[in-house]
């Protein structure tokens, strides 16, 4: 059986810079940081990291209340990003066979705020009668993809991926397979995440968060930098329209890029520590599936969470495969680590860089750490023709993902 080709025809984003892809790009162009001190978080005993990159909720009431009642923040973000992605792709669902249109959207878990509120409501007196019926739908692990499907009236494949920071790339990889196998024609793929003190706290207790910049929040996170001290959580959603190539050409769609390679691997060694060797294997296999050699990659959008060990392992893996020849940057210095949404928001940014012929630098990278040296760090805007992108995503649990997009 011959596999079908898969292309990206639409992009939608809700990020800490605001609603829309244009706001994300503008924030990077202007070299801004969306990270700020979080008022009220200091009430949580033991929480050391008090900075994050929140989204200002806008336009949520444009979603009908009947649909919105079952949505937490993350589902609202995804619904808004999905609307933008469909409009960008020029797809009107009223004209589609909705049995051939679906969505695959990942997150680390259900709505963090809704989960917290549920237990705060129920546990003092162990009184389940205080809970309303919509709270479950906000808390369930597939809340985002289910709510987006209900909001849009989709009848095709609806799946949720949950692999921490690799969730969105896993969603894109699943979508890639579903379309090239002919099971679906159009898929909305990506991830969504929301902020809550308990989310940052889960990283805090692992000593993975940035704690030294609470009084100077816009100086963190610092991917690959000598003075990095951990990640900063963000929130939002990135949704991409994946479409079968012949169908996209037939309707004269604008094509951002073709998805040509994907790989996911596990290191099987440690639940929280990254591993260079498994990263190398993951990147190499994705590149080989794309029919490329390492020198055929024009830009690497790194995972680069600004943790001490994670950045070192990723830099060493990139150095082994690519040396200093390929430009490398990441966008977490601008908007923080959006966790389950990171892969798709960051890929959206990379696709806009491909379109514009410019690579935005790694924000807050001022002095490259010695253990992260030897790769092509982008520290100033770089004009470059980009024909191929490698997007990395490396998650707790020892889960790696790498995806290759090629310009047609």
From TrEMBL:
One Pfam entry name: ketoacyl-synt
Gene Ontology biological-process annotations: fatty acid biosynthetic process
Stretches assigned to the Ketosynthase family 3 (KS3) domain: 3-407
Annotated GO CC locations: cytosol
Entry keywords, A to Z: Transferase
Transferase is among the record's keywords: yes
Signal sequence interval, chain numbering: none
Gene Ontology molecular function: 3-oxoacyl-[acyl-carrier-protein] synthase activity
Keyword presence, Transferase: yes
Database matches in SMART domains: PKS_KS
Annotated family: Belongs to the thiolase-like superfamily. Beta-ketoacyl-ACP synthases family.
Annotated PANTHER family: 3-OXOACYL-(ACYL-CARRIER-PROTEIN) SYNTHASE II FABF, POLYKETIDE SYNTHASE-RELATED
Name under which the protein is recorded: Beta-ketoacyl synthase
Species the sequence originates in: Pelobacter propionicus (strain DSM 2379 / NBRC 103807 / OttBd1)
